[in-house]
Amino acid sequence: MKLIKAISVILLPFFVACESDEKKFARAERECSQKNSVDQLDVSLFGYSYDDADSVSIKIQRDGKIIADYKDALPKKYFDSLRHQRYYTIKKNILLTDTLMVKIAKEPIRKIYGFSYAVKPHFTMMNRDFGCEFSSFVMDGEIVNESTVSLVKKSAK
Fold it and tell me: In a 3-state reduction of DSSP, which class is residue 62?
């Protein structure tokens, strides 16, 4: 009797945890359908030395009106000093329908809009799951299937 109880205690969580892939995918789709904003946006800067660009100007446009217009200092620390690669994070809540206008140094203003989420698979050694992840945006009219905005200095290409 104790053996049966012990086996049931061990196996019960196993059967409860066995959710079908269809249910996992549907759960992640529901999560994605409820998303309406991006909490923060990671930006990778490539080719900008600190002498070229020490700050970034950002405008957030919502429903035709500018709701945020600010200038922020860029980090001095390089991730890769040979290629002048740095990371910056826009720490504002951005709606999926917002348009970001980003200006660095003497470069033209970059328009970023059309933010979207997608269901993506997550794998571990013992499990497969699905999650809702920030997946794409449009930058200057081109669709970018990444979660990080990459700004490359025109002369660095």
Answer: strand
Cα(46)–Cα(81) distance, rounded to whole angstroms?
10
Taken as a whole, the chain contains a residue count of: 157
Query: Which strand (E) or helix (H) includes residue 14?
Result: helix 2-17
The C-alpha atoms of residue 117 and residue 93 are separated, in whole angstroms, by 15
- pTM of the full structure: 0.79
Q: CA angle 22-135-143, nearest 5°?
A: 125
Tell me how far apart the terminal alpha carbons of the chain are, to the nearest angstrom: 72
Q: How far apart are alpha carbons 8 and 22 in whole angstroms?
A: 26
Strand residue runs (E) in 5-147: 37-38, 41-46, 55-62, 65-73, 85-90, 94-95, 99-104, 110-123, 128-139, 142-144
**pLDDT tens digits, 31-81:** 999 999 999 999 998 888 888 888 999 999 999 999 999 999 988 877 666
Q: How is residue 44 annotated by DSSP?
A: E
Side-chain-side CA neighbours of residue 37 (13 Å): 9
| Angle, alpha carbons 51-74-71 (nearest 5°) | 105
